Amino acid sequence: MRSTALLLMVLPLLPAAAQEPLETKLVVTQNGQEIGREEFTFRSTRGRGLPGTTIIAAARYPSTSPTTRLAATLERTPDSSLAKFQLDVESAGTVTVILAAGSGARLIVRTVAKGSESGRELPGGPDVVLLDDAVFSLYHPVAELATPAGRTLTAIFPRSGKRATFTARRESGSAGAAGRVALSGEITGTLVTDAHGRLERLELPAKGTVVTRVE
After folding, report:
1. DSSP assignment, residue 48?
2. Which of 11, 19, 96, 176 could pair covalently with 197 via S-S, beta carbons 3.0-4.6 A apart?
3. Mean of the pLDDT values across residues 110-136?
4. Which H/E stretch holds residue 8?
5. pLDDT the model gives residue 187
6. Is a pLDDT exceeding 80 seen at residue 181?
7. How, if at all, do strands 68-76 and 51-61 pair?
């Protein structure tokens, strides 16, 4: 009963996020074929006007007549720690909600679906980023955290439970501005941001995935 009540509380956030005017549009291709689209908004504040950053994203796969829709909200504090994460996944007529919050060096992740709820505790901290294989605007904090010497980060994929350690090395530009970041380790690729620090292009060769911004 508690799981169902929590699910009913958070479900309205899925259409709410999807209905907001999302200013940046992305096309997702795999091995040269378009497989989905994503839209997102980046804000230099958190909820209730608190300092930090917020990403609100909506993705659909495939692009037309989608069978899977995702809505994500990610809030980070000024020191890059996780403040709030929510990922809603609608597929095959069911909705799964994944919630995460940081508390010092701990990361609490909960997964809620109709009739079920599970939770786990994972190592957290400012060097941990939350990613997803279908919501690519979540790579924005990677660009913020990258350094010219290379910064070692731990990626957690809350939906699958996968973890990956990788290095983000800034090849040009600075955080929050146009630049290029090289990814190496368990995640390899290239991340390009525009003059406002927003994702412009992401290449993940191991998966044949290329994400590009469209006007």
Report:
1. G
2. 176
3. 88
4. helix 2-10
5. 98
6. yes
7. antiparallel
For 199, the enclosing helix (H) or strand (E) is: strand 199-204
Question: What's the CA gap between 88 and 93, in Å, rounded?
Answer: 13
CA atoms of 53 and 132, how far apart (whole Å): 18
133: Cβ contacts below 8 Å, ≥ 6 apart: 157, 159, 160
Nearest to 209 by CA among 1, 26, 32: 32
Buried b or exposed e, range 106-145, using 16+ CB within 10 angstroms = ebebbbbbeeeeeeeebebebebbbbbebbbbbbbbbbbb
Q: How far is CA 138 from the centre of its chain?
A: 2
pTM of the model: 0.86
Two structure tokens written together for 165: 């350690």
Phi-psi region of 12 (alpha: psi -120 to 50; beta: other; left: phi over 0): alpha
User: What average pLDDT does the segment 38-45 reach?
Assistant: 91
Q: Calculate the alpha carbon distances from 147 to 12, 118, 154, 175, 181 in Å.
A: 38, 36, 15, 9, 9
Stretch among 54-58, 74-78, 95-99, 205-209 having the lowest mean pLDDT:
74-78
Contact 105, 31 (CB under 8 A): no
- pLDDT for the residue numbered 21: 54
